[in-house]
User: What shape does this take?
Amino acid sequence: MVNWINASLAAASHLNSSLKSFESATDARLKEVSVFDKLKQMYDLKRKADSLKKELESEVIDVESGEVRVRINAAQKIQRLEYPLDISPDKLRDAINKALDEAQKVAAKKMQGMMGGLGGLQDLLK
Assistant: This one.
C-alpha cells in the first residue's frame, strides 16, 4: 500500500511538472502573439499619422489681417506671405499669429477624427 501511495505521489509530481512546462510554453506563445499584435497596432497607428500629415499639408487656409495676407496649410507651414513694404513688424506678427491660430484650429478638428485610433496607444504602453 505504501508503494502504491509513493507511486501515486511520484506520478502526481510528474504531472504537476508537465503542467507547469505546458503553462510556461503557452504563456510564451501568448506573449509572442501579444508582441506581434502590438507591432501591428503601432504600424496601423503610423499609417494613420502619415495619412493625417498629408491631409494637413494639403489643407490650405487664407487669412487676411489689414493689409497682410497669409496663406498657410493646416500643418502650420506658411505657403505665401504678402504685405506692403511699409507695414509695421507688429501688424505682420499679428497677422502671422492669426494664421497660425486658424491652422491649429483646422488641425485640431482633423485630429479629433484620428483620436479613436490613438485609443490603441494606451494598450501599446501597457
